[in-house]
Design a protein that fits this description.
By secondary structure, the protein is of the alpha+beta class. Helices cover about 50% and strands about 20% of the residues. Strand 4 and strand 5 form a beta hairpin. The model has no long low-confidence stretch (mean pLDDT about 90).
Length: about 150
């Protein structure tokens, strides 16, 4: 069994929405062969809680407006460290970069086929590492100036 056309359509729209809000490391997996509860997972991350929330809001708005899809469940809003949108056909995980590294969902689903995503979404790969490096450099220079 593979992800349905509807699931792939939802994943593409969600990935594009996430990319438009500058999400990092967007990736999607077809989990239909190993899970009976959904067809696909979309993973994305952001360097801060406010951006996590912004990405999730954009995904939710875009899927509703363009595809008439509303999540049956939204979890994690209070802390905005890991927000999950459950559309039944797909599940979207938007995580703070630290949670993304700690929980490493990619490891769990690495044996599942990756779904093709829009070019803008693919271009986000490696952005979290770039951001972390820039942040470390800024922190180091700031620390050096304080002395």
């Amino acid at each position: 069994m593979t992800a349905t056309d509807r699931s792939i359509e939802l994943i593409s729209a969600a990935a594009q929405a996430a990319a438009d809000k500058l999400a990092h490391d967007i990736i999607a997996y077809d989990v239909s062969d190993v899970l009976s509860i959904t067809d696909a997972f979309l993973l994305a991350s952001a360097p801060n809680d406010r951006q996590v929330k912004s990405i999730v809001d954009e995904i939710e708005e875009r899927l509703n407006k363009e595809l008439g899809a509303k999540p049956v469940r939204r979890e994690g809003d209070r802390d905005a460290r890991w927000i999950l949108l459950d559309y039944v056909d797909i599940v979207v995980h938007v995580q703070h970069s630290e949670e993304r590294v700690f929980y490493a969902l990619e490891r769990l689903w690495k044996d599942c086929p990756e779904l093709d995503l829009p070019v803008e979404a693919k271009a986000t790969r490696g952005k979290a590492a770039e951001h972390a490096k820039l942040q470390a450099e800024e922190d180091a220079s700031e620390f050096g100036e304080v002395r």
